């Protein structure tokens, strides 16, 4: 991103920034070709502008006001952007653990750890105004720190995430609350277990339903089938490992729960249309 005008605030614990806020103004379009792997939870709020971003090897374009969310491990790059105003909130689990607080804010599998849906959320004006007030409170706390700053900043971040979840729900056609809950629970389970659980029946059993019932739940809200979601998550992690680690095919296969590297290579080739080595070579030369 172009850093023409940027101001960054950090909250540090033991000399490590665990929460930060960056305010950025862009005057010109910017092109960045080098992808990077995200190392913290990040919330981007593009208040005005347009751009084309690549997240986990998929390209998305947006225009106008949007929120989008990145989870540690995701691969992010900017193809082009022309943005007038934006901000970025960044935090690590030591500052705020979304898994621990999921019953309170319900963002795990919705905003974060959700590689199955478009990452952009367009907030309605009412929510946008609420987000702006929360952001002003965060800035004020950074500029006028006092006792219990950690607790107050964490509270403001929690408010920002809750409002973002509401914006996501408002912008999504939900046919049934039960269906969306099943999808959320399934996607979180996949994120936690895709390296060792590859069958639909294993996930259905953990959810307390049958494989057929799980498939029907996902069909009714128009998502991919459970088997496709599991496969795509494994392929995504394979791509990340090929590009961002020095592991060989055998090591990657074992990490993803495949005892036979040759079988894993055939699985990858069938899904991607090229072998793991060809994918790595072509991606790094592009």
Notes on the structure:
The protein has 286 residues and is of the alpha+beta class. It folds into 2 domains: 5-170, Jelly Rolls (Sandwich); 177-285, Homeodomain-like (Arc Repressor Mutant, subunit A, Orthogonal Bundle), CATH 1.10.10. It contains 10 helices and 8 strands. The protein has helices at residues 102-105, 125-143, 149-170, 177-193, 200-207, 211-220, 226-244, 249-255, 261-272, 276-285; strands at residues 5-13, 16-25, 36-37, 41-55, 58-63, 66-70, 75-91, 120-121. Strands 1, 2, 3, 4, 5, 6, 7 and 8 form an 8-stranded antiparallel sheet that branches. A hairpin with a 2-residue loop joins strand 4 (41-55) and strand 5. Helix 4 (177-193) crosses helix 5, helix 4 crosses helix 6 (211-220) and helix 4 (177-193) runs parallel beside helix 7. The longest helix has 22 residues, at 149-170.
Keywords, separated by commas or semicolons:
single chain, 286 residues, alpha+beta, Jelly Rolls, Arc Repressor Mutant, subunit A, 2 domains, 8 strands
Question: Which CATH top level class of the largest domain fits?
Answer: Mainly Beta
Strand content: 15-25%
Give the termini distance in whole angstroms.
Answer: 20 Å
CATH architecture name of the largest domain? Sandwich
Order of helices and strands: EEEEEEEHEHHHHHHHHH
Number of domains: 2
Proportion of helical residues: 40-55%
**CATH topology label of the largest domain:** Jelly Rolls
Number of strands: 8
**Average pLDDT for all residues:** 89
**Whole-angstrom Rg:** 20 Å
CATH superfamily (homologous) name of the largest domain: Regulatory protein AraC
Structural class: alpha+beta
Which regions contain 5 or more consecutive residues with pLDDT less than 50?
none
Number of helices: 10
Can you tell me the overall shape?
globular
- Largest sheet descriptor: 8 strands, antiparallel
């Amino acid at each position: 991103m172009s850093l023409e005008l940027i101001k960054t605030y950090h909250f540090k614990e033991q000399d490590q920034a665990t929460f930060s806020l960056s305010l950025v103004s862009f005057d010109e379009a910017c092109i960045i070709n080098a992808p990077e792997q995200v190392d913290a939870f990040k919330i981007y709020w593009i208040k005005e502008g347009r751009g084309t971003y690549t997240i986990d090897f998929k390209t998305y374009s947006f225009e106008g006001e949007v929120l989008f969310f990145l989870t540690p491990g995701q691969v992010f790059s900017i193809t082009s952007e022309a943005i007038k105003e934006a901000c970025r909130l960044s935090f690590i689990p030591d500052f705020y653990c979304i898994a621990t607080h999921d019953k309170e804010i319900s963002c795990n599998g919705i905003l974060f750890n959700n590689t199955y849906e478009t990452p952009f959320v367009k907030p309605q004006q009412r929510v946008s105004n609420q987000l702006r007030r929360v952001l002003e409170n965060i800035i004020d706390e950074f500029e006028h720190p006092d006792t219990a700053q950690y607790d107050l900043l964490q509270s403001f971040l929690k408010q920002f995430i809750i409002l973002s979840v509401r914006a996501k729900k408002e912008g999504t056609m939900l046919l049934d609350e039960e269906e969306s809950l099943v999808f959320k629970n399934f996607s979180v389970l996949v994120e936690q277990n895709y390296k060792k659980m590859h069958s639909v029946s294993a996930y259905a059993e953990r959810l307390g339903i049958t494989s057929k019932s799980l498939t029907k739940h996902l069909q009714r809200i128009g998502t991919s089938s459970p088997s496709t979601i599991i496969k795509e998550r494994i392929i995504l992690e394979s791509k990340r490992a090929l590009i961002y680690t020095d592991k060989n095919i055998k090591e990657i296969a074992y990490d993803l729960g495949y005892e036979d590297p040759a079988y894993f290579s055939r699985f990858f080739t069938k899904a991607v249309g090229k072998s793991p080595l060809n994918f790595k070579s072509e991606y790094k030369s592009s």
